[in-house]
Amino acid sequence: MASRLAQLRSKAAQASEFVSKHGCAYYKEVMEKNKQHVVQPPTVEKCQELSKQLFYTRLASLPGRYEAFWKELDSAKQLWKNRKDLKVEDLGIVTLFGVELYAWFCVGEIVGRGFTITGYKV
After folding, report:
1. Do 56 and 78 belong together in one domain?
2. Widest pairwise Cα distance in the chain
3. Reduced to 3 states, what is the DSSP secondary structure of residue 101?
4. How many domains does the chain contain in total?
5. Helix axes 44-60, 62-81, angle to 10 degrees
6. What's the number of CA atoms in the CB half-sphere (13 Å) around residue 32?
7. May I have one GO cellular component term (predicted)?
8. What confidence score (pLDDT) does residue 119 get?
């Protein structure tokens, strides 16, 4: 256990050293690549204005999302009505999607409990 801790510390020190040497150059490179996305001047007021624009833009997109949801639901209902005409491939895709969804919920529960299976920490 102590050797693993020493290994972890050495790797953390190496990563810290790498970031301290190359972090500034990486930051400058990223900012240079994405300068078209930076609003000038970068003030608090401008950030608040952009935040409001984002909020109301997302709010304005709700009716379109609502319609898309109902269209998707209608197509799922049609699939269910014609389930006898489904191919094996379609059933396999639906089954895999269901298993994946269930697995994500299980993993989410485990993560939510602090990576314990039973909920009790040892």
Report:
1. yes
2. 63
3. helix
4. 3
5. 30
6. 6
7. proton-transporting ATP synthase complex
8. 60
